[in-house]
Amino acid sequence: MTRPVNIADGIYWVGAIDWNIRSFHGPAFSTHRGTTYNAYLIVDEKTALVDTVYEPLQEELIANLKQIHDPVKIDYLVVNHTESDHAGAFPAIMALCPQAHVLCTQRAYESLRDHYPDLEFAYTIVKTGTSVSLGKRSLAFIEAPMLHWPDSMFTYVPEEALLLPNDAFGQHIATSVRFDDEVDRGLVMDEAAKYYANILMPFSNLITKKLAEIQQMNLDIKTIAPSHGIIWRRDPGSIIAAYARWAEGKGAAKAVIAYDTMWLATEKMARALMDGLVAGGCEVKLFKLSVSDRNDIIREILDARAVLVGSPTINNDILPVVSPLLDDLVGLKPKNKIGLAFGAYGWGGGAQKILEERLKAAKIELMTEPGPTVKWVPKDEDLHRCYELGREMAARIKD
Questions:
Q1: What pTM does this model have?
Q2: Could you report the per-residue pLDDT of 366-397, keeping only the tens digit for each?
Q3: Could you tell me the CA-to-CA distances from 372 to 236, 352, 357, 393 in Å, in that order?
Q4: Catalytic annotation present for 228
Q5: Helices (DSSP H) in the chain: which residue ranges?
Q6: Which domains does the chain have, with CATH numbers?
Q7: Is 45 a catalytic residue?
Q8: Which one is catalytic: 148, 196, 243, 259?
């Protein structure tokens, strides 16, 4: 059982830690390091609970609340986002404090009604600029639609310079401590990058606009307490800067090669392309798809400039193991990437065209079309061409 953690005077983390979860959104997102469901209690003349937790862990939330404040006396329940990992305990909390007033966006209210049609509750629809006094402190709200659901919003406590942005700035990581200055910073930033790449990447343009809006509001932000992972108190500006960089999508001098192979022909091509990229001064991440986690691959694509995907032909198509990554990329649409498709075939082709069509559907600019493709096995001249294409791509990346 976890215990509450004080994050400011009268403000507490009261969430739950999920040490054993290894996939999120069904099987869509790998969580090698677990996760947390963060909820926050603000005790003032009036008391507010900001977000809840996933329903299977609601007893941890309730136990934490009872150590600080009688849940029956909660005055406000703020729902920043209605996805089940944050609002799953909504019915259990409302059963404890049925008089509590729910604060949420219009879309969140509609979602709560659809999720819990038999539950009656008092509510107020809030918008950017709405403020609610708790006594010494207040809650201000910032709508954040599509970060990452239409109902999403941020809650800000100006008196503490505390931002509670729900899924923004979070990470899937379970730790026994709650703050960024208590953990390995590189590990947490890597998990934050993986979270952004796999969940928020399609909304990069909206994130750029929202960050600019927050900057124009001139908010003083000393602490960022998201709904997953650790709380940023040592240097909250670093994660804001990282989001700005990731949203811009420039990428570094780095390439990701993702492939699979039947009888090593496509693998030989992948390694020749890698050698050319490295010779051209480019960092390379090489992944064989049948033994790699595609969420980890997408994390590496986030700050790469180039994406190379290879597959041999089978049944006039690509290998089945290659398809899920391409499906993800079509949905995520990473910004400002150049790409290349490659692979081998035997008595009939087909994979090359499909690879290139899928990369273009993901808005990845192809360096050359068609890319390198060989019949049966690559000869020395084929591998040399792959090497030279790698060098050419490295030059483009560095430019």
A1: 0.96
A2: 999 999 999 999 999 999 999 999 999 999 99
A3: 45, 9, 15, 13
A4: yes
A5: 58-68, 84-87, 90-96, 106-115, 185-195, 204-217, 236-248, 265-279, 294-302, 323-332, 351-361, 380-398
A6: 5-248 (3.60.15.10), 255-398 (3.40.50.360)
A7: no
A8: 148
Q: What is the pLDDT of residues 80-128, one digit of tens each?
A: 999 999 999 999 999 999 999 999 999 999 999 999 999 999 999 999 9
First to last CA, the chain: 53
CA distance 96 to 92: 7
Cβ burial of 146 (10 Å; 0-12, 13-18, 19+) is middle
- The CA distance from 312 to 293, in Å, is 20
- The token duo for 297 is 């691959």
Tokens read off for 7: 């994050």
* Residue among 85, 260, 303, 382 flagged as catalytic: 85
Q: Are 275 and 234 in contact (CB under 8 A)?
A: no
Q: In order along the chain (399 residues), what is the average pLDDT of each group of 10 residues?
A: 90 98 91 98 98 97 97 97 97 97 98 96 97 98 94 98 97 97 96 97 96 95 98 96 95 96 97 98 98 98 98 96 98 97 93 97 96 96 98 94
- Determine which one of 69, 81, 86, 172 is catalytic: 81
